[in-house]
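Instructor's aside before we start: the two examples that follow are unrelated to each other. I chose them only because their records fit on one page, so don't look for a connection. First example below.
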Amino acid sequence: MAAPANKTIGDLSGKWIMNKSLSSNVDPGLKLQNIGYLTRKLITSVTLTLDIKQFSAPPSPPADASAPAVIHIEIDQTGTGGMKGTSEKRCLDNVFRDHKDWLFGHVKGQTRWVKAEEVEDAFLKSGWLEGEEEKTGPNGETHVMSYVESYTDGWTATQVWGFKTIEGQRRHVRNVVIAKGSERVELQLVYDYISS
């Protein structure tokens, strides 16, 4: 289902479901991240639903809690049949924070607002809607950029989030590059809006 006009990078709150038929096969990316065969098969067999909450609050540690409020994006993922996915707690201030979960292990990541011209990688910056109606970040940004490094498995994952026209409909999309040494996997993940 197309994203409503009021759903922008400035307000992603709501439920979104991954459109597997329009998204890349994630198995090569998971393999590069050292996820085992059986876990990869389980993940690729389910459809993920994202429950996103986007809000303003003081920054999370290690930032000073007395600093000005920043935007947070918290995501709980659930697979078909209620399978528990990972939880993401992103603070859009570009500060590295540690995170541990059952799937990706011990990682550090940072998240920030970006404009298209700030994205250097050709794949990450490709295909986005960049009109005035998309410039809903605090300073007119059209994207969220996330960068994650694994402490244990040597991979990095860079994501750029925004909106694209896919099969004639405006949809929430994440362009993802997973890299490890000289290897690189490019993924486009497409999400359909379900409800607020």
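Example two begins here.
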Amino acid sequence: MGTIPVLSSLIDNPQHDQLSSDVTQPSVAFPGKSSVIEAITELHKEKSQQSVWISATDTFFSPYMPVLVKLTLVSGIVHQLCFCAFSSLPFAIGQVQDAGLIFLSNMASDMVKAGMEQDDSADRILATVTVSLSLCTVVLGVGLVVIGRLRLAQYVRMLPTCVIGGYLAFIGWFCGIAGIGLMANVSQATLTPTLVLRHSDKVAPGIAGGMVIYALVRRYRHMAVLPACIVVMLGIFYMTMWLFGATFDDVTRDGWIRTTDEPPQLRRTWDYLRLDLVNWSGLPRLVTSELGMIFIVALSSSLDVAAIELELNDQLDYNHELVTVGVSNIVSGLTGGYTGSYIFSQSIFSLRAGIRSRVAGLVLAICQIVVLILPFSLLQYVPNFFFGALLSMICIDLMYEWLWDVRTTITQAEHMISLSTFLLIQLFNVEWGILLGVCLYAICWKTGIDVGDLKISRQQRDNEVKYGAT
């Protein structure tokens, strides 16, 4: 695939072409269908990412949400096209990502408070925030390119497999909780068991659907199973609507479909990026948050690459992939967008669906472009449990494999470290949980406890299950 000369020089890597050819095998799935599924799922996620703005003091951004959400969608398209062009992984999904958005949310909150204290107009505050966050995204991208060029990302490869396994299980848990919150129409921050029980009629179909899809995919391992399950799920929902004489307004009012705002015209997407109104004096206060964001995004992106490497059973160039993330953020920021990286859950979804073609990523970007220019929202026709079922399937798959199934191919100590890392991430956060997991691994190794090899590939584990450990 051809690349833009300037950007190509940033990510030049002699191993890139060879690696791409190694992992680019004939596709055994329907890349188009999988990408449409991912596009709809990503659209719903980008809709929910308006929390970046809503969390920034009171309801300041509420009147501007339709335009800001559309700008987030544009950013997702830019990220996906960059990953299609530069990543060595043909199945890679790159979109706006939460790790950077958390920092952007705090930055937005600080700028709104500062603007209000200085009695700035709403237009001035809005311009300052949107332009500043785009510039911070560009700086993030430059920082990631520098880290990749200095070849610092490769040290993540030293993480033990059992620790990464705990992280993968957490990703599964995160997907499951996100799916439940989505089906219950409740944010993850306010999700409680009581609310889940209250909305059990909305949550149960999605969880059941995810379990059925997982069982069928694991049982039959055929490329048609997943698309067939999706068609059946949607068919049952629409048939039930027809039998009960319900309209889309009825099911939306009852909570089966999330309420959506009417999308604004495409030409209004960049209305708020007005350089003449920006209060430039507030930018220096963002330096500390910017440095923290660079570190966290570099770490989280490298962890995603490590997890994909484990799944793929092929050595990846961490530094090249981090430079790819950096270039993607530079382009996103220059187009008024926000931070992004690999979306691990959807990349694994594509990998396990048998996608080995860049066509899938391109179809995803095209679907997002179509959604961008449509005068209505597709989400008003898709039930919440559809997304919940897909997220539940990913949850069951990752948690079962890395918390239970893996126990037969690693030592007992490694299994306990994997479980402990999963729990530590829950108690603290991803960074501290992984660090404590590594410390636990080091203590076991130092005291002579058998913690196996530092790395064990997915293929090795499959072979041990098939032929027996030697």
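Confidence is low (pLDDT under 50) at residues 1-30, 48-58, 457-470.
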